[in-house]
Design the sequence.
């Protein structure tokens, strides 16, 4: 009988940073809730409990870095049940060490050299208020002004993105535990979702002209496009620079705003991403203008959009 894995998504991301003061300032502005902090670093959460942590980049508690300076050091994936952790451990123990903690949490290193883990998800179910958008023939918001966001409150972690020497290695590694290609740039990159039913992508890997992987960005879901814009504007007002945005992706349909962060890549607000099921058929795209975004403003010349630096393999 084949094992059915059902990884729900990213449960926690830990960064190593060169300046803990700057990192804390950024995450405070980003809108995450600070749970604890100290000399060692800090732990933050989104509205649903998914975590973002940082430690000093020289901390011995962190897994090895894939690149120097500030960068992501560990990605923890969430599963529903403890039995799934056992199945994942069995799979990866075939060819690498897997550390099993008392609570069943797993820790290992993936095939790009990144520290990863798996645990029973700490994600809480969100219960948002119903949408009240007025449209011709369907006016539902009456005598009530619409919602305005002075700043964003990230609801959950959406996806993480890496530039890698060969995306096929990443697709093969995560495919062992059920990750599926939602869309693909053949020969150049793949959008992977962790389970059959779920977010358009939890992990995007694209080829870059480098021998080592590079963290590109980490994305957070907010409630709607207005919160994307409210959040981006607030970050700019605090002095943080836009990487690219606001805009709207063609692949995944999401509205976005990427901000340059002190974490070695950008952080992204996104809203209204596509959700897929087992009925979805993988699409293939050529890298080109109009694919990264349907529309966008404010692209910083230094920001490497996830397709701009791809190379043919
Ligand atoms: Fe993204």
Sequence:
């Amino acid at each position: 009988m084949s094992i059915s894995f059902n990884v729900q998504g990213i449960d926690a991301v830990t960064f190593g940073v060169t300046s803990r003061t700057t990192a804390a300032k950024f995450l405070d502005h980003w809108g995450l809730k600070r749970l604890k902090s100290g000399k060692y670093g800090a732990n933050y959460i989104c509205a649903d409990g998914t975590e973002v942590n940082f430690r000093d980049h020289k901390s011995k508690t962190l897994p090895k870095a894939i690149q120097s300076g500030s960068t992501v050091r560990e990605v923890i994936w969430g599963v529903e049940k403890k039995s799934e952790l056992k199945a994942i451990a069995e799979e990866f123990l075939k060819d690498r060490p897997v550390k099993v903690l008392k609570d069943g949490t797993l820790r290992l290193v993936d095939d790009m050299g990144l520290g990863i883990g798996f645990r029973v998800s700490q994600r809480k179910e969100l219960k948002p208020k119903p949408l009240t958008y007025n449209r011709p023939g369907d006016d539902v918001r009456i005598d009530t002004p619409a919602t305005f966001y002075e700043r964003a409150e990230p609801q959950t972690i959406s996806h993480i993105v890496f530039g890698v020497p060969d995306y096929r290695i990443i697709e093969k590694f995560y495919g062992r535990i059920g990750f599926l290609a939602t869309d693909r740039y053949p020969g150049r990159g793949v959008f992977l979702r962790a389970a059959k039913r779920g977010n358009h992508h939890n992990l995007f890997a694209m080829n870059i002209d480098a021998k080592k992987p590079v963290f590109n960005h980490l994305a957070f879901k907010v409630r709607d496009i207005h919160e994307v814009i409210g959040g981006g504007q607030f970050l700019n007002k605090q002095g943080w620079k836009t990487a690219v945005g606001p805009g709207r992706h063609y692949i995944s349909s999401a509205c976005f705003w990427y901000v340059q962060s002190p974490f070695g890549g950008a952080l992204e607000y996104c809203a209204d991403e596509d959700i897929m099921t087992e009925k979805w058929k993988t699409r293939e795209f050529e890298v080109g203008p109009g694919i990264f975004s349907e529309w966008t403003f404010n692209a910083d010349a230094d920001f490497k959009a996830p397709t701009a630096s791809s190379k043919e393999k």
